[in-house]
Amino acid sequence: MRKHIVAGNWKMHKNNAETVVLIEEILAKKQANSTEIIIAPTFVNLATAIENTKDKNITVAAQNMHQAEGGAFTGEISAHMLTSIGVKTVILGHSERRAYFYENDALLALKVDTALKHEMRIIFCFGEELKDRQNKNHFNIVENQLRDALFHLSKADWKNIVLAYEPVWAIGTGETASPEEAQEMHKFIRNLIDKVYGNDVAQDLSILYGGSVKPDNAQEIFSKQDVDGGLIGGAALKADDFLSIVNAF
Ligand code: PEP
Q1: Does the active-site annotation cover 94?
Q2: 91 in ligand 1 pocket by Cβ < 6 Å?
Q3: Is 231 in the pocket of ligand 1 (CB under 6 A)?
Q4: Torsion of CA 172, 174, 178, 181, to 10 degrees
Q5: Counting beta carbons within 10 angstroms of the beta carbon of residue 119, is it exposed (0 to 12), middle (13 to 18) or buried (19 or more)?
Q6: Model confidence over 193-230: pLDDT tens digits?
């Protein structure tokens, strides 16, 4: 059965000391809950996060990685570097990576393959822009993103895939998809996976929603049948807000 997951994407926030403090606050206030908690601090703070969450039921994820095994790629981080410090989950395809660093689905397909080769779990982000929704093209956009980045995978590979539907117009804007809009898209995605990979893969797949999820809207969004959790940006930076989202299931 698929898991409930709430993942905090800390983006380029929190220095090392602040990372320690936020983790301490989360650990001190977190209640027993079957929802998996993931935090994704910046690269330089991953080792600290791993150390400070050891045996605490919190998973640490990277926000990105390079597709190559290694080499002359100044400023980049490989899958092997991540796994060597204990990071086993990576966020790929975030809309900010797509928009500001020109990552497209062909590149993301390579990153996905490298991550899977290293037995990492992937939180794969995708979603339409506002103009796509206004043009009623959002289902096509989402289908193309998934097909181009993920549909070359084998059925077995999907054990290590978590999807995060993040409509670009809802990220960091305070705008959120209505619970009905989120459910409509998540159902479309699950049906698509069912068509391509079969019902067992579709039913086991966790599909997260991301885009201005806050303590006051999380419960309604998470109450939808095909929403299995959230990828949280702004609200993941305050322990109380983040945990109230975790507790919204
Ligand atoms: C995100 O960055 O993935 C995100 C959903 O951000 P926010 O929650 O701030 O909209």
Answers
A1: yes
A2: no
A3: yes
A4: -30
A5: exposed
A6: 999 999 999 999 999 999 999 999 999 999 999 999 99
